[in-house]
Amino acid sequence: MQNEQPIQIPVEYKGEELTIDGRLVSFGYTYKLYLTIGETEVVFEKDDSQQYRALIETPVDGKTLDSGLINAVIEVLDSL
Description:
It is a single chain. By secondary structure, this protein is of the alpha+beta class. The protein has one helix at residues 67-79; strands spanning 2-13, 16-27, 30-37, 40-46, 52-56. It has one helix and five strands. Strand 4 and strand 5 (52-56) form a beta hairpin. The longest helix is centred in the C-terminal third of the chain and has 13 residues, at 67-79. The chain has a five-stranded antiparallel β-sheet with strand order 1-2-3-4-5, with helices on one face.
């Protein structure tokens, strides 16, 4: 059974306080976070060693996402 909840993740990056909108989707005993960064939806999930990883499709605008921002989001998720 799938359950979905809207979420907001506060992230400090390059001296700015950002709020990343997204949704938490649970699948039985596991979950994934679908966060919108820019115009790109990035999926965050835990790997086999329980570390967060980001799954990124090609960004809408064709630009690559800032890996520092992705790492900042992962740091926040790890602290929760």
